[in-house]
Design brief:
The complex is a heterodimer. Chain A is mostly helical. Chain A has helices at 3-37, 43-58, 61-76, 82-108, 111-119, 124-155, 166-177, 181-212, 222-241. Chain B has helices at 5-44, 49-63, 67-80, 87-112, 116-124, 129-159, 171-182, 186-214. The chains are: A mainly alpha, B mainly alpha.
């Protein structure tokens, strides 16, 4: 492979990473907004959020991308730059998957924590921000890490729409060299390295966040066990005072 | 926004053809992924690391790289090596291979969830190794993992549109062809979008019923 072709691949890597970062940000916002809405006290909010999740989880990411590229422009009279169209389709789809993670983690927080917040007359938003989220977020990191790798794999779909990402640059190089094995092996390796780096990054983040709430990483039940000993300790201390 | 029911009617025959190909790819891909996944799991339990290591590395690699690029790889590289398959065959194999790296984790969890007493009982009854697996461990493990496998079938359904990229005319391929011929994008794409939601919703209902019957 010549330097020119490598340059093409590098430009593809850059586009993939940009798309990954933007759509991961959008997906995070969507998953927290929708996931929190699914624990809302008004049924209509819960219903709408559930409807959103079912629709976007039910359809395929690639169909969504086609829809955003081809149906949105004539329907609404405006067309998005490919980068934003890809971000929108991927962010909304993977956000729907993420909202399930957020909902699950919020529901897994010990109900006594929520009741404690009510007893202290916190507003619902304060409860969410000060009690539920700090305990739920560290538990979300491992599933989010898997979802991020899925999202990375999903970004390759935009190459079908002719966006110059890593997979697309692989196709170009194949056309230039008239041989496939070498270039596709490189492309797969690059994707694997990015995925590996992302997994490592998320593991570091998990460690830091779990340290923040005083649990060891890698133990899904660690939070609950640690909480039990903690409350036991407080109870014992109170007993001692009385 | 204009909606043309005429275009929907004109697209419907193509839609049924596409749906058939999608379901065919899904069914065959599922079978391959179930069988290959079990093979990977059993190989990962091999006594020597000379087997475990390469299998672990390959499956990890396949799991963490995009199915789309794997499709391109198989579709373009195999013919260069003198192996020519139809696009659908290549696609089905790629999907099956990709998802087998997911199902192997499911099987592993299922096998680990079989209580240790079952192993000990098989040992106490002096059952041969093969019979321990086929008559004691696997029937219990597979019953447990059916719901999780079903979830991967639904994911697989949502990845079948990728086969379009290697010229298979499944639902999305049909919709794109129709759009390009008639220059009507809205109707066919919306029809197949709704079809995907309906099929995956029906599949999840079916799965829930199955789960209730199998997992007690």
């Amino acid at each position: 492979m010549t330097t020119g072709l490598w340059e093409l691949v590098l430009r593809g890597v850059w586009t993939t990473i940009q798309l990954l970062v933007y759509s991961a940000l959008l997906a995070t916002v969507v998953s927290f907004a929708v996931g929190m809405a699914r624990t809302h006290r008004l049924w209509i909010v819960r219903f709408l959020a559930g409807f959103y999740t079912e629709v976007f989880r039910g359809t395929s990411a690639l169909v969504m991308i086609f829809w955003v590229f081809f149906v949105l422009p004539p329907a609404f009279g405006w067309q998005l730059v490919p980068m934003w169209a890809g971000t929108l389709a991927l962010g909304l789809t993977y956000g729907a998957y993420g909202s399930e993670i957020v909902r699950g983690a919020l529901n897994a927080v010990d109900p006594a924590q929520r009741e404690g917040g009510i007893a202290l007359s916190f507003t619902p938003w304060q409860r969410m921000r000060l009690i539920l989220l700090p305990q739920a977020v560290p538990e979300m990191i491992p599933p989010f890490s898997n979802l991020l790798v899925e999202l990375l794999k999903g970004t390759s779909l935009v190459s079908i729409m002719g966006m110059g990402d890593l997979a697309f640059s692989g196709n170009l190089v194949r056309l230039a060299l008239q041989q496939s094995a070498e270039i596709y092996t490189y492309i797969l390796l690059i994707y694997f390295v990015i995925a590996f780096a992302l997994t490592r990054l998320m593991r570091g983040l998990e460690k830091r966040l779990k340290h923040g709430v005083g649990t060891a990483p890698g133990t899904p039940s660690g939070a609950r066990a640690a909480k039990k000993t903690q409350t036991g300790g407080v109870g014992a201390a109170e007993g001692g005072v009385a | 926004m204009t909606w043309d029911w005429g275009a929907v009617r004109a697209f419907l025959p193509h839609f049924w053809d596409g749906l058939l190909v999608t379901l065919e790819a899904l069914a065959l891909g599922s079978v391959i992924s179930f069988v290959l996944g079990l093979v990977w799991t059993l190989l990962m339990r091999a006594p020597t690391r000379w087997v475990r290591w390469p299998v672990g590395a390959v499956t990890e690699f396949v799991r963490n790289t995009p199915l789309l690029v794997q499709l391109f790889f198989l579709f373009y590289v195999l013919p260069e090596r003198g192996l020519t398959f139809s696009a659908l065959t290549t696609g089905v194999f790629a999907i099956g291979l990709h998802y087998s790296t997911y199902t192997m984790q499911v099987y592993r969890a299922g096998i680990e969830a079989v209580p240790a007493g079952q192993w000990e009982a098989a040992l106490a009854l002096n059952l041969p190794r093969r019979r321990t697996w086929t008559a004691v461990i696997l029937p219990q493990a597979i019953r447990r993992v059916v719901p999780a496998l079903g979830n991967y079938v639904i994911s697989m359904l949502k990845d079948t549109p990728m086969l379009m990229a290697i010229t298979v005319l499944e639902m999305l391929g049909r919709a794109r062809l129709f759009s390009q011929q008639h220059f009507q994008f809205t109707e066919p794409l919306t029809v197949i979008g709704v079809a995907f939601i309906l099929v995956s919703y029906l599949a999840s209902l079916l799965l829930r019923a199955l789960e209730r019957r199998l997992v007690r």
